[in-house]
Amino acid sequence: MYIVWGTRMMGKVDAVPGVGHVATKFFYLQYVPLIPVETYLIYREVGEQIHGIRIPFSPKSIFVAWLRTGLVVAAIALLVTGFITISERHTTEGVLCFVGVGLIAAAFIYSYYFGPICNAGYSRAMHLAQLANLGPEQFLALEIAYGRMNADQAEQELARIYADAQKAHERQLAEAPPPQSPSTEQFVFK
């Protein structure tokens, strides 16, 4: 028997528009997630390379990974039960098992599209944006994406942020001591 084990990202949840999603790295055995190792905010995935930052554990991501695994195991068990039941000439019970497999498969697929599971709410999205140290432009893009601002309001807010930053920079330059001219002793040419 071939044993497969290692670590893998599972439990994809809390997608944030223009930022990424949350997933948890699990230690797995036979592709069954056993022990959560760390949770990440993933910006992008290119093949096997994953780009993101480590964040505190996400109970939602961990639960969803285990839930999806449980659904797969239940579907396999019910499928085997259905075949055994039909082979024993209990057609009605066997058909019910297959209907159950179909419902479980639908629940598994739906878990990747159900809004509260796959998409982050506004407060979670803003918290993830803070963890990612996003700039004001990205925060304002999230405000627009979540319907908290329109594009004109965001543009005005961004102009205000830039004006405040410019004033702070000018204040910092005014308070800084003037640069000293270099003495002739500092430059030695040979």
List key phrases describing it.
190 residues; alpha+beta; 6 helices
In short:
This protein has helices at 59-87, 91-110, 115-118, 122-131, 136-145, 151-175; strands at 5-16, 20-29, 32-46, 49-55.
Number of continuous helical runs: 6
What's the assembly state of these chains?
single chain
Cα end-to-end separation: 75 Å
Largest sheet: 4 strands, antiparallel
Structural class: alpha+beta
Shape: elongated
Radius of gyration: 27 Å
| Proportion of helical residues | 40-55%
Task: Please tell me the overall pLDDT.
Answer: 90
List how many beta strands DSSP finds.
4
Tell me what you see in this structure.
The protein is built from six helices and four strands. With 190 residues, the chain is α+β, with helices and mostly antiparallel strands. It has a four-stranded antiparallel β-sheet. The chain starts with a strand and ends in a 15-residue tail after the last helix. The mean pLDDT is 90.
Topology of this protein?
Elements: E1 5-16, E2 20-29, E3 32-46, E4 49-55, H1 59-87, H2 91-110, H3 115-118, H4 122-131, H5 136-145, H6 151-175
Antiparallel strand pairs: 1-2, 2-3, 3-4
Helix pairs in contact: 1-2, 4-5, 5-6
